[in-house]
Design a protein that fits this description.
8 helices
């Protein structure tokens, strides 16, 4: 079992994915890592960041990737927004993590009971800024026939496809994967 150490650069995407999977297994079993916020650790992080993965996930307060992947501060570069959508801002943040910080794994993680996906499936009129989020999810609603559970996975897959077409992802041969976090049992299912 490998865990990320402060300041450690991991360039192997397969190893990074394995570390996320093992972290979720620790989360499920309760055999968690010993997190450190010591002065030494903060000093290492103050010199720069070396996340081994990028996680694009929902801003839902119940969805905290550092917890369900059981990683320490500085291990993952997290981009959160309602519905885990991939827009220009998300892509810009991800490009920074891949190009500048050297992350070679990008994981898009949706979750059960996603309010943004549910709102997209219901199709009710929403305020302008919320509607912009829903517009990114709408194509997944159409292919899932409005089934929220199916749409959650379809939305993740659509966002994975957007990221796979990014020039920086291609240039650095980054691995892009999708997953769904279950808020009921804490398990991450890889799609």
């Amino acid at each position: 079992m490998k865990t990320h150490q402060p300041g450690e650069s991991i360039q192997d995407a397969a190893l990074a994915l394995q570390m996320l999977k093992e972290g979720n297994e620790r989360h499920l079993s309760g055999n968690l890592i010993n997190r450190s916020a010591s002065g030494e650790t903060r000093g290492i992080h103050a010199k720069g960041q070396t996340p081994f993965a990028v996680v694009v996930t929902c801003s839902d307060s119940r969805v905290v990737p550092e917890i369900y992947f059981d990683v320490d501060m500085g291990s993952i570069f997290v981009i959160r927004n309602a519905g885990n959508i991939v827009d220009a801002t998300t892509l810009g943040s991800m490009e920074y993590a891949v190009e500048v910080l050297g992350a070679r794994l990008v994981a898009v993680v949706g979750h059960s009971a996603c309010g943004a996906v549910k709102a997209a499936c219901e199709g009710e009129p929403l305020p302008q800024n919320i509607q912009q989020i829903i517009d990114h999810i709408k194509p997944s609603v159409e292919i899932s026939n409005g089934d929220v559970g199916v749409c959650i996975d379809a939305n993740v897959s659509a966002m994975v496809d957007k990221i796979k077409n990014n020039e920086f992802v291609k240039k650095h041969n980054a691995l892009v994967v999708g997953a769904r976090f279950d808020i009921h049992d804490g398990k991450v299912a890889w799609l």
